[in-house]
Specification:
Length: 307
């Protein structure tokens, strides 16, 4: 069948399917409730509607004095000093691996944007540690400093990063699942921004549990042939202490900014990436050692040589 006729046939079928959806008189009478069914019966639901509640509760409104006071408090000297220390957290116990010099990103930006694709199949060829370092610095690297003036006199240096962050609070840190990276053992690592290094937080058993927590089957995403997974782990209250519920919006926006820059850097290096949310949250949180609430995985980026 010609392509145009096939497209018309699919469009007609889709239109007919939507027009002929049956009305469900009582949602509670239906045992197996798909997301599509729940959408068609919004008025009958008694279960929490978390996504809609989040959108409503995170709206900015005029004359919200509590939020305004919370934000103003961050312009004090004490807050400025605290923010300046944000990325000074030390490495925990475990091997520390200094990151090597970045590989050069020589591809013109327009060409990078044109070439970027989501890649789901990988060759299994080993990844250079310098390439991983390049991607991590594209998303999290310190690219400069500025001086914060203090009301009591003097100033404090503040690190500036590659990706923008609401209020310069940087609530997202990177964990790296090393699967097949040259000069880096297999396991879970944490990026220590201030030291430009990786600190190992988990070994082979943790990595196995981590891989088992992904929901997508191997025929859809060849995770076994990938080189690494960069995990964006958020501390929502780092932003919400200042911005309230709206701070969570800023956290998610920042995750998107970081992911975009990692994707573009990978493309410029000739690598393939896939933004992936296909994981079982409780299982992956246990595997990487976070509580899932005050520290929670918000995004994952799979990296490999595209097949």
């Amino acid at each position: 069948m010609p392509r145009e006729k096939t497209s018309n046939a699919i469009a007609n079928a889709a239109a007919f399917g939507n027009l002929s959806k049956e009305f469900i008189g009582t949602l509670s009478a239906t045992g197996f409730q798909t997301n599509s069914l729940r959408y068609r019966c919004l008025g009958q639901q008694k279960r929490p509607r978390a996504a809609e509640d989040f959108l409503l509760n995170s709206r900015l409104v005029r004359r919200d004095r509590e939020t305004e006071t919370s934000i103003i408090s961050y312009f004090s000297d004490a807050a400025a000093l605290t923010i300046a220390l944000t990325d000074r957290e030390p490495a925990l116990s475990g091997a520390v691996v200094p990151l090597p010099k970045s590989a050069g990103l020589l591809m013109e930006l327009g060409e990078v944007l044109r070439r970027r694709r989501s890649i789901r199949r990988y060759t299994g060829d080993q990844l250079e540690l310098s390439h991983l370092a390049t991607m991590l610095r594209a998303g999290f690297g310190v690219t400069g400093t500025t001086d914060l003036p203090l009301s009591t006199g003097g100033q404090r240096a503040l690190n500036l990063r590659a990706a923008p962050s609401g209020g310069g609070l940087y609530p997202i840190e990177a964990l790296i699942a090393s699967l097949n990276v040259k000069d880096l053992s297999k396991g879970i690592f944490r990026l220590i921004v201030s030291q430009d290094s990786l600190s190992q937080t988990g070994g082979i058993s943790d990595l196995t549990s981590f891989l088992d927590s992904f929901a997508a089957p191997e025929e859809f995403i060849s995770l076994s042939s990938a080189n690494a997974v960069i995990l964006l782990v958020a501390r929502p209250w780092r932003s919400m202490r200042k911005y309230g519920d709206r701070g969570l919006r800023l956290v998610l926006i920042e995750a998107g900014e970081i992911a975009a820059q990692i994707n573009l850097a990978a493309t410029a290096l000739g690598l393939g990436t896939l933004d992936c949310a296909s994981f079982y949250d409780d299982e992956i949180h246990e595997a990487i050692g976070v509580d899932g609430l005050y520290q929670t995985l918000v995004h994952a980026i799979i990296i490999g040589h595209g097949a």
